[in-house]
Amino acid sequence: MVEAVQGAKVVVTGAGGGIGAALARRFAGQGAKVVVNDLDAERAGAVADEIGGIAVPGDASSVLPDARDALGGTIDVYCANAGVGRDGGEPGEPLDEQGWALSWDVNVMAHVRAAHALLPDWLERGGGRFVSTVSAAGLLTMIGTAPYSVTKHGAYAFAEWLSLTYRHRGVKVHAICPQGVRTDMLTASGSAGDLVLKPTAIEPDDVADALFRGIDEDRFLILPHPEVAEYYQARAADPERWLGGMNRIQRHWESTR
């Protein structure tokens, strides 16, 4: 048991399946009271029934008032897990501005709005925990999808900013950055995901394991795939070499399409 979350009041967005459902189950198993949020009301309800939680379906950007009410007025842990992966069109192709806008809204601005709503109470109480499901794409990048890569960089940057700004005031922040995880999003990533992510993909429960180890150790950066730390260091140490290597992967992917 992780003492830091026992009895906590928790909100998990995008929790109708995949990583979100795994996180909701794990928090509930630790004795937390969990709000399960998802756009799909049926899936949210199924997970909530399974774990003895409370389903609050709807858009992750606007769930906080109803979630706070469902938890009796207080939120201790907020898991910004809802995310989208969209192809915004390659250079020279028609620009999918709608896809870009949706990616910014869900992958970045939903986190910003949540923090804006949560921080006044957390700072007054001297404590709170913000969990951001980012992606290894937020530390590195991902071929084939500019909106996902760019907005996940933004999500990571915002989590980092929250941590460095408020950690001395009791706010804990964790950024989860896995590579491939066996979820619907991996299936939807198509041939790029099959090439880059599928060979080392892990289960959603493995991501939950990594987060709870990180909470117990009070770590900001959560790497369910430990090798991502080596890739991140290599990228920083020699960007040209790293970009060359990624370009080789890009060319290999293009040759197989």
From TrEMBL:
<dbReference type="InterPro" id="IPR036291">
    <property type="entry name" value="NAD(P)-bd_dom_sf"/>
</dbReference>
<keyword id="KW-0560">Oxidoreductase</keyword>
<dbReference type="Pfam" id="PF00106">
    <property type="entry name" value="adh_short"/>
</dbReference>
<protein>
    <submittedName>
        <fullName>SDR family oxidoreductase</fullName>
    </submittedName>
</protein>
<dbReference type="InterPro" id="IPR002347">
    <property type="entry name" value="SDR_fam"/>
</dbReference>
<comment type="similarity">
    <text>Belongs to the short-chain dehydrogenases/reductases (SDR) family.</text>
</comment>
<dbReference type="InterPro" id="IPR020904">
    <property type="entry name" value="Sc_DH/Rdtase_CS"/>
</dbReference>
